[in-house]
Design a protein that fits this description.
Helix content: 40-55%
Mean pLDDT: 98
Number of strands: 21
Low-confidence stretches: none
Shape: globular
Strand content: 15-25%
Bound molecules: nicotinamide-adenine-dinucleotide
Amino acid sequence: MKTINKVYINGKFVTPHGNERFDLINPTDNSLIAQVILADEIDARNAIEIAKKAFETFSKTTIAERKEYLQKLYEAAAKKEDELINIMVKEYGGTLQFCRMSTQNAINSFQRAIETLDQFNFERKVNESKVVFGPLGVVGIITPWNSSNSFIASKLSMAIAAGCTTVIKPSEMSALQTELFAQCVHEAKLPDGIVNIVTGLDQIVGNELTLNRDISKISFTGSTAVGKAIAKGAADTMKRVTLELGGKSPNILLDDADFEKAIPMAITAAFQNSGQACVVGSRLLVPEDRIDEVKQLIKINIRNNVKVGNPAEENTTIGPMISRKQYDRVQSYIKLGIEEGAELLVGGEGHPEGLDNGNFVKATVFTNVKRSMKIARQEIFGPVLSVLTYKDEKEAIAIANDTRYGLMAYVSSGDSDRAMKVARQIDAGRVIINGLKHDPLAPFGGFKESGVGREFGVYGLEEYLEPKTLIQ
Ligand code: NAD
């Protein structure tokens, strides 16, 4: 059996000081596929020290040099595209369709950072002063398991564009994907010490990054609970933080929407990445007097277009949950929805037929969901959709905003001006109108407890820079 027994520090694959082993389990059948030896706080400190030293020279590089490094990273990652996709399917259990998109996103991040640099003004005149933007320092990058390399790449590309050096702590459950990503970084032949990768546990490596004085910023994607812990820990050293956290995103179908189109989109929005995504449209808001039609369309659509199964198969739309723990969590919410009195329209508890070995969950839809119910308020992180009804547009907006989250929202309407008017009233970092389009250069991030700061494009780059005013 394969054992990953190296961390990546100072441009080399080295044996970690840490010696704790962690099992990597294939979520499709729960077989043991590999083990990883985890980094500990000594490894984290070594990586931070190296990154700090590398910052002395890297912070002084020109934009042209950084663009060259980003290009090299792009080429090295693009060469391994197929391998990156396959290992993501195997280790994470993401569907082939999703893993392709996520991997392309990871690879393209480096190109987008180059494009962003092309439009970014590092020196601006403000009133009578000159304002210069310089790199913040060493950045700690902490990422979750649900699209691991894509999150790492989007943060890393911006850190490099800014002239920051990095210490990356991915989820321990993504160690095989991380190993391949580290090989891409190595093959890009960047100067030593700019990218350091230490896969380790939250309370050990994550904590060291959060508390260490030599880390100037944490860029984190993960749960709201952990984001809050990091923000508290980071406050002692006044670290900058970018926190991309959870969501319970509303999807409003206005009464003039084309339901034949909007319902399939709503199903895709709810079940994308097997429901294990911060951006899933997990609350579908529909007009009260159209609920029967909505129910019909949901049933037909799930029957015809949704397939739970082997993630490596081309037409699978929902793969297994990443772990047994995540499977149990989703099951507990399905049980809770029934206990709370919601109506189970599709799916329910247990494994889908013939899929008993892996962490597969039935595509599940609840109707007659009230906004006070936990299934309407808490992030489930699985393929479970809650359908709520509203009387009028005003109530739809009120329900949409009745959440502690504010990451994403979706609106469908036959009238784009009306949709835009509604979108402006929703408290979310992104609202997608009549579709599921992604814009990788526009800001991404959360209102309220969905986070702090923005990623992508010029807004994302600014998060890695400190403005300095020069007055003459
Ligand atoms: P998580 O918060 O449990 O862990 C994320 C990362 O943080 C992991 O690497 C983990 O080891 C580390 N970590 C955990 N506790 C820590 C601590 N106290 N100090 C430092 N590091 C710590 O999240 P997860 O279960 O891996 O991922 C699922 C969550 O991520 C969901 O809530 C989801 O909404 C969120 N998410 C948000 C976005 C976004 O862009 N807003 C994207 C994807 C996922």
